[in-house]
Amino acid sequence: MGFPIGQAILVAACAAISLGFSQTTIRTDVNLVQVHVKVTDKQGRIVTGLEKQAFELLVDDAKQEISVFQGEDAPVTAGIVIDNSASMAPKRKDVIEAATEFARDSNRRDQMFVVHFSDRPRLGLPEGQPFTDEIDVLKAAISKFHLGGTTALNDALTRAMTHLDGAAYSRRILLAITDGGDNSSTAQPRDVVVAAGKSSAAIFAVGIFDDSDEDRNPVVLKQIAEATGGAAFFPKSSAEVPGVCKQIAREIRQEYTLGFAGATDGQYHSIRVVARDQNHGPLQTHTRSGYLAGSGSD
Questions:
Q1: Per CATH, which fold does 77-253 belong to?
Q2: pLDDT at residue 215 in the model
Q3: Beta-carbon contacts of residue 196 (< 8 Å; ≥ 6 apart)
Q4: Fewer C-beta neighbours within 10 Å, C or N terminus of the chain?
């Protein structure tokens, strides 16, 4: 299956969010590792409303104290990364609608930005405005297609994760919409996963692939998304993309965030989360499989 993408995850310094009744406060905890967890029942339905005591967090099969816990619908910083390559021309209207629906269905406190890309990435919001929570501003940014050129998806994702350095919320999401495999990036898939670990970003990818496209690579796109704690979706046509993006927005709002004190040994550590609740029967958790610790000198 190619590169060992799971072991490329690097979770470095990140911010913990502590939610009060009236406001969100942010603190910095150098060794804090955060994982975002979706919980489903045996029918595959998403389970919400669980409390901290319902979760058990294991690192290398050893139980860890959960030092940060957030229930579902905590605000996020989200980047919408949109393919502008020439083949996207007939899909443009559906993609604009889809990205806008994603923004509308997200938490109203979410801070968002847009990255367009073909052979290189560019920001969509007006200069001097790194993030916004205004739907009209986001829609205008989403609509700024410059069609043509090749597909530098990896470069666009790493550029988006660099932009996340200025994020207000430590829970970070990237939504990537593309219709082709990467064929012109300097960055490699491993670089994307490492950058996602550094920024604690989960990638949700929507691939609108044409079977005749020799550059399509759904396996790698799926690996990147799942290694970062996100997911990949492959609709049959661009007309299905708005519905997929609404689904992604809903699922993000139904995830839990767990934080724990990470190691500083520079080693890869496995992560496993268990959820139990007598009212729901057997539960399954969906999250990233591990993290690469920073070193004490970082």
A1: Rossmann fold (3.40.50)
A2: 65
A3: 9, 157, 161, 174, 202, 203, 224, 227, 228
A4: N
Note whether 57 and 258 are within 8 A (CB).
yes
The per-residue pLDDT for range 29-59, each reduced to its tens digit, is: 457 888 889 999 999 999 999 999 999 999 9
Q: Which amino acid is at 196?
A: A
Check residue 44 and give left, alpha or beta (phi > 0: left; psi -120 to 50: alpha): left
| Cα 90 → chain centroid | 26
55-59 β-sheet, strand order: 62-64, 55-59, 268-275, 290-292
Q: Are 22 and 165 in contact (CB under 8 A)?
A: no
pLDDT digits (tens, 9 = 90+) for 140-163: 999 999 999 999 999 999 999 999
Is CATH 2.40.10 the classification given to domain 5-14+26-71+257-292?
no
- Cα(127)–Cα(139) distance, integer angstroms: 16
Q: Which of 208, 185, 188, 12 is nearest to 92 (CA)?
A: 208
- Axis crossing angle, helix 135-142 with helix 92-105, rounded to the nearest 10: 160
Enumerate helices (H) and strands (E) in the chain, giving the number of each: 6, 16
Residue 7 confidence (pLDDT): 43
**What are the residue boundaries of the structural domains of the chain, listed by start?**
5-14+26-71+257-292, 77-253
